[in-house]
Write a structure and sequence with these properties.
This protein is of the alpha/beta class. Helices cover 24% and strands 13% of the residues. The chain has a domain at 81-238: Gingipain r, domain 1 (Rossmann fold), CATH 3.40.50. Strands 4-3-5-8 form a four-stranded parallel beta sheet. A two-stranded antiparallel sheet has the order 1-2. A two-stranded antiparallel sheet has the order 6-7.
Length: 258
């Protein structure tokens, strides 16, 4: 995750002795982890970002050692915040990126059309992901706004099952997963179907990277009016923040209809 390496394991403290039909609980355990340096070829990002340092610290048992992997301070980014959208909508996002620049957050708008013609990939989703990887590695991008609904920025549909229901022959049993655009590790981070079957994004077998290397959000917009309303609301909230927290004093009255 953003240059941090983790050792992930499961520990089950219950032991069952079949011959005695007894279950025992291990209340104290010690683990020794032995590893070879250089075994895993991970990506060196020019910037880490406070958000990823905090996330990494919350994931591990030994946050005091995180500084050994990544520097505590970042070099300035060329484009810390990027907006990916269409040519037709790009100009309507400019007030938002201008505001980010005023706050000191380097920002850039990248169009899907330019990505299609400039980056490799088997489909538009893969090309967009390669663009995000390029910006993260070479411009220090940390935050990505997907500026459009799935008609502008296609979603990546992953095979899934819910509540242990696993229908392998249902071609529509998928969920859109924008997390596809955030996990950038691996030999080919765009390939979430390593076993080559008709179900992409399967856990454990398809190389799915669920540890994000960028923070990506989507604004499900389609028209210029949608973008203008979204940008205006965002700017109004940031430039005129509430003077007090009224959430605790708000109430909603609900009546039964019928």
């Amino acid at each position: 995750m953003r240059g941090f390496l983790f050792f992930v394991f499961n520990y089950y403290p219950l032991r069952y002795t079949a011959s005695e039909q007894k279950t025992s609980l291990v209340t104290n355990a010690k683990f020794e982890v032995v590893f070879d340096e250089g075994f895993y070829d991970f990506r060196e990002y020019p910037t880490t970002g406070e958000v990823f340092r905090d996330a990494a610290a919350n994931l591990v048992f030994n946050p005091e050692n995180l500084g050994r992997q990544r520097p505590l301070f970042d070099e300035p980014s060329e484009a810390e915040y990027i907006v990916i959208t269409s040519n037709a909508l790009s100009s309507y996002f400019e007030p938002l990126t201008d505001w980010e620049m005023q706050k000191g957050v380097t920002s850039e708008i990248v169009t899907v059309e330019s990505i299609e013609s400039s980056y490799p990939g088997t489909n538009t989703q893969a090309k967009i992901k390669n663009c995000i990887l390029d910006y993260a590695m070479n411009k220090g991008s940390i935050c990505v706004l997907l500026g459009g609904d799935n008609t502008i920025i296609p979603d990546y549909d992953c095979y899934c099952y819910v509540n242990n229901d696993n229908p392998p022959y249902d071609p529509d049993y998928t969920n859109p997963a924008d997390i596809y655009y955030t996990g950038l590790d691996g030999t080919d981070p765009t390939d979430w179907n390593l076993d080559g079957d008709d179900k992409q994004g399967e856990p454990y077998v398809d190389g799915v990277d669920l540890y994000p290397d960028v923070i990506a959000t989507r604004a499900g917009l389609r028209t210029s009016d949608d973008v203008t309303a979204f940008v205006n609301k965002t700017l109004n909230y940031e430039q005129n923040p509430p003077t007090s927290d009224s959430r605790g004093r708000s109430a909603i009255s609900v009546q039964s209809l019928g």
